[in-house]
Amino acid sequence: MSARQLAIVIDAADPDALRDFWVAAMRYRPHGEAGAYRSATPPAGETGPKLVFQQVDDPPTPIKNRLHIDIVVGDEIDDETNRLLALGATRLSDRIDEVGTSWIVFADPEGNEFCLEVERIGEALPNLAARHSQWIRGGISGMKRSGATSPLILLVYNT
Questions:
Q1: Which long-range contacts (CB under 8 A, 24 or more apart) does 153-156 make?
Q2: What pTM value is reported for the model?
């Protein structure tokens, strides 16, 4: 039995602008649009989850994200920080060094938190569980885009 395809759906006030941000941040490509939905996928020949941006009228709620995206960039964290800030991200933290890994917390242009991770995906997985002190409910799922410099790690945990 083959694994299921993963799509991450992100609510957005402006799905076009938010898709443009994530396309640039992840080096993805715009994929399509239908009604209130826009999507982005990895370039041809690379793997990774589809990102879907759904236009919603209700404003975000002021609670902590229970799911966030980590972009793993290896030693390129300083260059990637500058690139993401130029794309419209907001830096929310200083560099955090803990349990053998480092990361910086950001928000995308609509306030969705994400992290820029120093470690490569194979090295990071054991440390991510320790880094997030909450009970990891859904496990850690890492999707590496072949040959890409920005694989994703999705963290799902119960607080």
A1: 153/69, 153/70, 153/72, 153/117, 153/121, 153/124, 153/125, 153/128, 154/6, 154/8, 154/49, 154/67, 154/69, 154/70, 155/67, 155/68, 155/70, 155/128, 156/66, 156/67
A2: 0.70
> Can you list the alpha helix ranges (DSSP code H) found in 1-140?
15-26, 77-87, 121-131
pLDDT tens across 17-36, in order?
999 999 999 999 999 999 99
Report d(CA 77, CA 92) in Å as an integer: 15
Q: Which of 120, 49, 116 is nearest to 83 (CA)?
A: 116
Instruction: Name the DSSP class of 128.
Output: H
pLDDT tens-place string over residues 110-144: 999 999 998 644 554 555 555 443 323 333 333 33
Is the Cβ–Cβ distance between 44 and 89 less than 8 Å? no
How far separated are the first and last CA of the chain, in Å rounded? 32
Specify the amino acid at residue 74.
G
